[in-house]
Amino acid sequence: MEAAERNAEKHINQLLKDVRRMIVYDRAERFRQGKEFNIFRVQRILNDEVKICRLIRELLDPKGSHGQGSVFLRLFLETLGWAKIRQIAGEDYDKATVAGEVLIKNDRRIDLLIRIGKYMLPIEAKVYATDQEWQCSDYYNFAVSYDPDVVIYYLTPDGHEPSDSSKNGLKDAQIQCISFAKEIIDWLTTCIKADALEQIHPVREILIQFREILKQLTGKEEGKVAMEIMNQISSSRDNFEAAEKVASVLAAVKAEKMIEIFDHIKHYMDQQGYSKYLVHEAYRDEANQYYKSKKLSWPSLNYCVPAAESEIGDKIALRFEIGTKLYFGIVPWDPVEKKNWKPESRDGDTETYVFEPLMPVKVEDSNNKHWYWMKYIAEEIDFWTCNNAYKELYDRRAFQETIESVFAEIADTLEVLMKA
To answer: With contact defined as beta carbons under 8 Å apart, do 283 and 294 qualify?
Structure first.
């Protein structure tokens, strides 16, 4: 190894050691000061996007139990820039309604729907769930009949766009992408600083804790340790170059961890005699693309179902996939294109067969047209935001425990499939 390479490796190792020391010290200090206690973390709200939306709805509702009237709603619409381009009278804020899980045609449910004056503001939140076909366009077609100028707000952890199949031809001006990382955290910060909340300590503390848990969700955690790390990196050229090299390989490190999980699943399936039923695997390239793009690439591993009747067997597949989380299930399958992207391949006979002999216990049918049913595995792990549960995968013991739990979930389903 050249002297320059040895020197670079030395600085990388030292920088990682210094940063690790800062993190350990900061964590101990936060624990001592009680800052690690967060009621939302205890309740694992990050694992439940329904609860996240429910809390946001309660805060936005002028008649909400927070008792602050329309303050939070006003600040929210100002944060979005929505209020600037619309004529909203003061009393309209107080009379506004904020509903959750609003049912429309095709059994769609809009996560949040604000009605204020003559306007409507629909919000579709995607924390973990994947898009459904025509979802955003269905919401738009519903809302535009009430408000010709309506815009669908698409809320995700990082502000990425909905899928083309969800937009179904909607123009960019008809959808506004917003994020928990930017707009929601900015809104909560503005609310916390609002004069109206200066003496309302219980509500203010809830907002602070909610903001902190969303920073965890979006990887925006900050504080004294972040500043110390910045100072350490900027203290010398060697430190900056070391940090630059670490940052340059981080996406590849994450991709390798995802590939490792798929490799374990594939090895397990091989051991169960499923190697001959493998119909498509491209998870290596898909995993690398996953962390290079702002759009989910849905890395997957696909098997035909040996128990299926011959005329049905070509139309379905057992699929393991990562969207933001790891899940598996039975999908409609196109054996020519080797994709499950053609929902029209579903038919009544196949659906009946899948739902009766091939449906495991405790699994509901999916409302996603690309899946007959799907089941999450190790649901607390978020591969997109790389939350704390994800970081545990880099501990070998924790990784092995996770893999064993994955195998246990798979085993129960394979038993059902093999008996069908």
So the answer is: no
DSSP 182: I
**pLDDT in the model for residue 352:** 73
The amino acid at 28: A
CATH fold of 40-197, please?
Trna Endonuclease; Chain: A, domain 1 (3.40.1350)
Distance CA 33, CA 146 (A): 51
H or E element in which residue 310 lies: helix 310-313
Q: H/E element holding 270?
A: helix 237-271
CA nearest to 128, candidates 302, 290, 265, 326: 326
Q: How far apart are CA 180 and CA 221, in angstroms?
A: 13
Q: DSSP string spanning 40-60?
A: HHHTTGGG-HHHHHHHHHHHH
> Where along the chain do the CATH 3.40.1350 domains lie?
40-197
Give the DSSP letter string of 290-350: HTTSSS----EEEE--TTS-HHHHTTEEEEEEESSSEEEEEEE-BTTTTBS--GGG--HHH
The pLDDT of residue 268 is 95
Q: What is the pLDDT of residues 147-170, one digit of tens each?
A: 998 899 999 888 888 888 888 888
- CA 51-55-56 angle, 5° bins: 115
Would the pLDDT of 361 be above 90?
A: no
CB 4 within 8 A of CB 235: no
Q: What is the mean pLDDT of residues 301-320?
A: 80
pLDDT of residue 20: 81
Please, what sign has the CA dihedral across residues 385, 388, 390, 391? positive
Q: Among 160, 208, 189, which Cα is nearest to 384's?
A: 160
- Long-range contacts of residues 237-240, Cβ cutoff 8 Å, at least 24 apart: 238/7, 238/11, 239/11, 239/15
Confidence bin at 12 (pLDDT 50/70/90): confident
Q: What is the DSSP letter of 247?
A: H
